[in-house]
Structures are given as C-alpha cells and as structure tokens.
Design goal:
Blueprint lengths: L2 E5 L8 H16 L3 E4 L5 H12 L4 E6 H4 L10 E5 L2 H11 L2 E4 L4 H15 L7 E4 L6 H12 L12 E3 L2 H9 L17
Parallel strand pairs: 1-2, 1-5, 2-3, 3-4, 5-6, 6-7
Helix pairs in contact: 1-2
Bound molecules: adenosine monophosphate.
Length: about 190
C-alpha cells in the first residue's frame, strides 16, 4: 500500500472532532510513508487533510475536474494536481492511482464516492480495501443501514466486510493493509452460483 485516496466533506462539519480526525489521519499517513490522493480542493475537511499532509512534508496528489471546480477552491500548492474532464474521469483516475480508499465524515459527494468503490469491489472490478473513519459515531447510521440491507436480503452477509469501519486512524490503516477481499460469493440470490 503506497497511496491512499481519502474522500471527505468539502465542509468542515459542526463538531470539532471531524476536523481533528482529518488532522490525525493526515499525520498518520505521513508517519507511515503513505501518499494522499484526494479531490484537490482547499476547503472543508478536504483542505484540512491536504494541508496537514503537506505541512508534515508528505505527498499530496489532487484530482480535480477543470470544468467544474475552476477558481478559488482549487488547492494551488499540491505535490501534483491532475486536471480531468469531469467527475467520472476524476473517480476513474483516483481509482487507478490509489491502493486503498477511506471516507472521513462528509455529505452526498463523500457518500457517492465511497459507495462507488464498494459497489465495484463487490463485483470484483477491483480488490482494493475501503475504510470508513467512524469519527464520533458519525457513520453509525450507515452501519445500521448496511445491517438492514443484509437482513433484508440485498447484501450477502460476507459482503459486509467490503467496508471496514474503524474510529482510530492508525488501526484503520493497519486493517486496510491486512485486508483480504471476501471469498467470491453469489451476489444474486436468484441465480445459481457457479
Ligand atoms: P461533500 O461530502 O458533498 O462535501 O463532497 C465531498 C466529495 O465530493 C469530495 O471527496 C470531492 O471529491 C467532491 N467535492 C465536493 N465539493 C468539492 C469541491 N469544492 N472541490 C473538489 N471536490 C469536491
């Protein structure tokens, strides 16, 4: 594991723990010699983690769609900034250059990004680990929703392991490094498993 892609709110959030978790994760990445890949913005938790990694002498790679985010929000002092055509190209690039994915607290943008990589993982399009930094219980309702979907027969129980929930950044990184994709499962209960 060399590069970790972090999805995070473009807002700082209402609780100081959210920003604190971005700082802690940023420091932990640098301590472990890991590079940060992220959306290239200078605002919210995105800006916090980028500035933390840069401030500790680490490497930060941004991936920003030129057309959508031209202007003041682009972080101008990254180690490298990829300018891509649109949001689709951005996620493809992030997926291609990263070895693991982590979500910090965030909103729709963060949810969408993390679930794209989980849903591709369940189809075997990639075998890279996906983690959620569950700061101050922010993602507890998401864990409940996943348990509900397993109970309701929409997610095979072995696919619960496709997202690693953890509140401590150091432990989360360790779990991502040790991740083994779940055994191949029949995702579709109506089809015969071959
Ligand atoms: P949200 O959680 O809705 O704030 O969206 C955050 C996620 O969406 C980030 O991980 C980014 O990849 C993307 N995103 C949202 N707003 C921006 C922005 N201003 N600049 C760059 N990326 C953004």
């Amino acid at each position: 594991m060399k590069r970790v892609c972090v999805f995070a709110g473009s807002n700082p959030g209402t609780h100081p723990e959210y920003k604190e978790s971005a700082i802690q994760l940023g420091k932990e990445l640098v301590k472990k010699g890991l590079e940060l890949v992220y959306g290239g913005s200078n605002i919210g938790l995105m800006g916090t983690i980028a500035n933390t990694v840069l401030g500790q002498g680490g490497t930060v790679i941004g991936v920003m769609p030129t057309s959508l985010f031209r202007g003041e929000v682009v972080h101008r002092n990254l180690t490298h900034l990829y300018e891509v055509k649109d949001m689709h190209e951005r996620k493809a690039k992030m997926g291609e250059i990263s070895d693991a994915f982590i979500a910090l607290p965030g909103g729709y943008g963060t949810f969408e990004e993390i679930f794209e990589f989980v849903s591709w993982g369940q189809l075997g399009i990639h075998n890279k680990p996906v983690g959620v930094l569950n700061v101050a219980g922010y993602y507890n309702p998401l864990m409940e929703m996943i348990a509900k979907a397993v109970e309701g027969g929409f997610i095979p129980s072995t696919h619960k392991e496709l997202i690693i929930f953890e509140s401590n950044p150091m432990i989360l990184l360790k779990k991502l490094r040790e991740y083994k994709p779940p055994l191949k499962t029949n995702k579709w209960s109506e089809l015969e498993y071959k």
